[in-house]
Write a structure and sequence with these properties.
The chain has 7 helices and 12 strands. It is of the alpha+beta class. It is elongated and about 65 Å long.
């Protein structure tokens, strides 16, 4: 049973997710009346939401409480689960598992995971949430023979943690390809965006500690909340180049 403070926070976050950055929710007095709470209780929740970067409070006659979706930084140079990088930035990570099955892979998946024609994969489709708002749609596939019983595990968190805890697998690196696509009707519904909205598709092959491919996934990030940032170092002649660092930021 959530506390009154947590219930108030959830109600406000729901309204924040329905708004767009810059939208004015109202003044403290208006919000206290709307949510049926005291201004002192409201201020405590607003302070936490402001610290998390979800709102901006402006003082003055034209001031009030404004929607301010903050950036969620995902480093492309690290292999880390979504819950970890969300939690590190103050978000409450959530997951909706849409479907799970053991199926025959298509040719692209078979080549990515180095599978034979008679091999199967475990397929898991999930929607990732940040403070209740959809940010990405995942379709991940794993070699079925390598991970028996995977679908019996808890799949709402980081699958990388499940693989390490139950199968002794440690992810070592990942190859990722990034491209812009448009949302299909189904993808738009799941991500809460309009049909043909811009999405960022990240196709990833993840390798274990023995450099064996263990995951092939296709992640769709909302284009209206995603920004790519890349940092590269300059070099002179004869100086060995350093690897570039890149990241995905959700805004």
């Amino acid at each position: 049973m959530p506390t009154p403070s947590e219930e108030l926070r959830r109600r406000i976050v729901t309204d924040l997710n329905a708004g767009t950055p810059g939208t004015k929710l109202g003044s403290e007095r208006e919000l206290a009346d709307r949510y049926g709470t005291s201004r002192s209780s409201l201020r405590q929740v607003l302070a936490a939401l402001e610290e998390a970067g979800l709102i901006t409070r402006v003082i003055g006659r034209a001031g009030g409480i404004f929607v301010s979706h903050s950036q969620v930084q995902r480093s492309l140079s690290d292999v880390v689960g979504v819950p970890a990088f969300l939690a590190n930035q103050g978000y409450v990570a959530g997951t909706r598992v849409l479907s799970t099955k053991i199926t025959a892979p298509d040719r692209t998946t078979r080549e990515a995971l180095r599978l034979g024609e008679d091999d199967f994969v475990v397929e898991i489709q999930r929607v990732r949430l940040a403070d209740g708002s959809p940010i990405s749609l995942e379709l991940a596939q794993f070699p079925a023979d390598a991970f028996p019983g995977l679908l019996e595990q808890q799949l709402g968190g980081s699958i990388y943690e499940v693989l390490e805890k139950h199968y002794g697998l440690v992810t070592s690196q990942a190859d990722e390809r990034i491209e812009a696509v448009n949302a299909t009707p189904e993808e738009a519904t799941l991500l809460g965006v309009k049909q043909r909205s811009a999405l960022l598709l990240i196709t990833r092959i993840t390798y274990d500690q023995n450099d064996v491919p263990c995951e092939f996934s296709r992640d769709l990030f909302r284009g209206d909340r995603t920004r790519l940032a890349v940092t590269v170092k300059g070099r002179g002649l004869g100086v060995q180049s350093s690897p570039a660092k890149a990241s995905v930021a959700l805004v």
